[in-house]
Amino acid sequence: MTGSDATPSFRLAYVPGVMPDKWVRIWNERQPDVPLTLTQVPAGAAAERLLGGDADAGLVRTPVDREVFSAIPLYTEQTVVVVPKDHLVTAVDEVAPEDLADDIVLHPLDDVLDWESLPGRPALERPATTADAIELVAAGIGVLAVPLSLARLHHRKDLTHRPLKDAPESSVALAWPEDAKTDQVEDFIGIVRGRTVNSTRGRQQPPARGGSTGADRGGARRKPVPGKSAGAKRTGKSGSGAPKGNRRGKPRRRS
Questions:
Q1: Which residue has the higher pLDDT, 177 or 255?
Q2: Rounded distance, CA 86 to CA 139, Å?
Q3: Cα separation of 84 and 107, whole Å?
Q4: pLDDT (tens digit per residue) in 85-98
Q5: CA 173, CA 75: separation in Å to the nearest integer?
């Protein structure tokens, strides 16, 4: 089977915290004959998976290497600090880095925030994953700064979070290898950008069979019928200007 004979499909990778459900639902509505396969990949492995051909595109965290990838920024997440529910900072609506000066701030190896200087006190060892760091927070070992979506992903009843101001933020983008843009990637770009199914941007959809053309719908003007003024509306008047059914005139005299 050649590439042109193969059934089209779309493989989308996404990193933890990203919720592609809405876009996938729209895809399934618009492309019922093109299956979409979702694969979650670690944030640090997304680029390798895309370059290795394991996915056609990915919802990844920035920065993205623009020498090998094309990317469309989608949104930027708020950074929060995850703490036990009885922590002192739960008394405020927003936490400043200096509020964590006495806390051990965990820094997992898969951290997606680009810190210049981590607040608080460092831990003796870095947890391997964000999930491991969450377990340490629950055990009262320290606190953890993460994008809001990751705090929600690893939600526990004994933990809560507060916005952390003056902290680095994480952005999410749709990315694909620059030399491997497919029709399916173009279609998904239209979805994440909010284009309607009838949008003139992106790939053009074939016209419906039996549909009327612009000229059939009045795009071209009709030639006027001889003896009638072009564009005249039916008003119930004859060509002489007298109303129909009212041409009596004067009665004839009998001789």
A1: 177
A2: 12
A3: 17
A4: 999 999 999 999 99
A5: 7
